[in-house]
Automatic annotation (TrEMBL):
It comes from Tessaracoccus lubricantis. Binds 1 divalent metal cation per subunit. The lineage of its organism: Bacteria, Bacillati, Actinomycetota, Actinomycetes, Propionibacteriales. This is Ribulose-phosphate 3-epimerase. It catalyses: D-ribulose 5-phosphate = D-xylulose 5-phosphate. NCBIfam families: PRK05581.1-4 (NF004076), rpe (TIGR01163). Its EC number is 5.1.3.1. Its cofactor is Mn(2+); Zn(2+); Co(2+); a divalent metal cation. The gene is rpe. Transmembrane segments: none annotated. Catalyzes the reversible epimerization of D-ribulose 5-phosphate to D-xylulose 5-phosphate. InterPro entries: Aldolase_TIM, Ribul_P_3_epim, Ribul_P_3_epim-like, RibuloseP-bd_barrel.
Length: 213
């Protein structure tokens, strides 16, 4: 069970310090938004390059952008260990996944809540992680969508014995993480649950314990 906190709800003027508050986490989840694929704008490549210099933690980049075919490889080249693109935005997802792996990153594909996993079942061998959105992408602090639970189950079945991580993102908290784990998720993004906590690192450990329970 891996906990990968999102820094979307952190203090963006002090990212190095904020990342230092989640030392027990398995990776830092960075949400890149372009105000086209989603109706919100966050940070891009220059900030990720700075984060790379500021921490040795695994960087888990979640690209919520148009034209990931053009931009995702740049994040791998910037030293991110994992780069996630949305299948809804990728023109050539297989080619893109192969390119990310060629550049030494883990390749990951993300699906919005209403996007069926079955449409992408044939390319599972091309990725190292599947991210299932459990809210509509764009903002932190939204309510977890229970309607995604059956898709988590189906994805776990489709993965079979493959060593592919199954990540959920959106509304994950002490209240919802058990449901996700029980359905088959093994990697959990939590943004507001972690950074709204008085002690973010303690919350990371509590979330991991809840996922294992
Ligand atoms: C939403 C982002 C998430 C977000 C999660 O579009 O992809 O990573 O930061 O935040 P919470 O955990 O607050 O839903
Ligand atoms: Zn995310």
């Amino acid at each position: 069970m891996r906990i990968t906190p999102s820094i979307l709800n952190a203090d963006f003027t002090n990212l190095a310090g904020e990342i230092g508050r989640i030392g027990s986490a398995d990776a830092v989840h960075v949400d890149v938004m372009d105000n086209h694929f989603v109706p919100n704008l966050t940070i891009g490549l220059p900030v990720v390059e700075s984060i790379r210099k500021a921490t040795d933690m695994m960087l888990d980049i979640h690209l919520m952008i148009e034209d990931p075919d053009r931009w995702a490889p740049e994040y791998a080249e910037a030293g991110a260990e994992s780069v996630t693109f949305h299948v809804e935005a990728a023109a050539a997802p297989v080619r893109l996944a192969r390119e990310l792996r060629r550049l030494g990153a883990r390749a990951s594909m993300a699906l919005k809540p209403a996007t069926p996993i079955e449409a992408y079942a044939d390319m599972l061998d091309e990725v190292d992680m599947v991210l299932l959105m459990t809210v509509e992408p764009g903002f932190g602090g939204q309510k977890f969508l229970d309607l995604v639970l059956p898709k988590i189950r189906r994805t776990r079945e489709l993965l079979g014995s493959r060593q592919i991580w199954l990540q959920v993102d959106g509304g994950v908290s002490l209240e919802t993480i058990e449901r996700c784990a029980e359905a088959g998720a093994d990697t959990f993004v939590a943004g507001s649950a972690v950074y709204n906590a008085a002690d973010p690192d303690a919350m990371v450990n509590r979330l991991r314990e809840a996922a294992v329970a």
